[in-house]
Amino acid sequence: MPIDQTKLGSVVAEQMEAIEQDHAGEDCELGDVIVVVEVLCPDSREVRVRSNPASHHARIGLLTQALRNELG
Question: What is the mean pLDDT of each run of 10 residues along the chain (72 residues)?
């Protein structure tokens, strides 16, 4: 059975709307993107990460900044 992608699509759409609202009229563009997804299966759970930074150093840096943002 294929996995329903609705939740992922909704989160991404909400993020884009928030970015566009916060930066309306500014000359901004998206930089690197990281997607973290929890996959729940009947007998297991895993966390998947996909990103466009080429190096692990860039990915870790972005994740560290996101963690700081979440912790305030």
Answer: 91 96 95 93 95 86 95 94
Of residues 14, 50, 52, the one with CA closest to residue 30: 52
The helix/strand/coil state of 39 is strand
First-last CA distance in the chain: 40
Amino acid identity at 58: A
d(CA 67, CA 27): 26
What secondary structure letter does DSSP report for 2? P
C-alpha gyration radius of the chain? 15
Q: What is the pLDDT of residue 33?
A: 92
Tell me the C-alpha distance between 29 and 57, whole Å.
22
52 vs 32: CA distance, rounded Å: 6
Tokens of 28: 């901004």
